[in-house]
Structure formats: C-alpha cells, structure tokens
Specification:
Helix content is 42%, strand content 30%. It is of the alpha+beta class. The protein has a single domain, classed as 2-Layer Sandwich (GMP Synthetase, Chain A, domain 3), CATH 3.30.300. The chain is globular. The protein starts with a helix and ends with a strand.
C-alpha cells in the first residue's frame, strides 16, 4: 500500500524528494501518513479535497481486496 501511495503523491508534487510516507499500525488498522512540502500541499489535497479523496478511494479499494483496514492521513511538514 505504501509504495502505491508514494508513487501517486510523488507524481503530483513539484518537490518529490520532500515526500515522506510513514506507516503505523494501531489495533489492526494500518495508518499511512503523507507529508509533503508546504508548496505541494494544495496539489496533493486538490480543489475541494478531490485528489485526497481519490487517493483514499484507491487505497480503500486495494485494502478491501486484501481484507485490511487502511487510513490515509495528510499532514503538514
């Protein structure tokens, strides 16, 4: 999951070297935390959050296929 999220986010960003993807596990739930440069934050979130929603939809579809629960969080750097 992490690799797919990293690929998508780096493709969107102007500064892909500043992209950090961290994963945590909490009570059977995998949490993927995305951190990007402040200038790239709008590109990852998108207008009205549409790109962020699309990333979450892709991850949710893949996690359902593997019978896992995954949450995607976008954090400020």
């Amino acid at each position: 999951m992490k690799d797919i999220v990293e690929y998508i986010v780096k493709a969107l960003c102007e500064f892909p070297e500043e992209v950090e993807i961290k994963t945590e596990a909490d009570r059977g739930v995998e949490i993927i935390k995305i951190s990007v440069a402040p200038s790239d934050m709008g590109k990852v979130i998108g207008r009205n959050g549409k790109i962020a929603t699309s990333i979450r939809t892709i991850v949710k579809s893949l996690s359902n296929k593997h019978h896992k629960k995954v949450i995607v969080k976008i954090e400020e750097n």
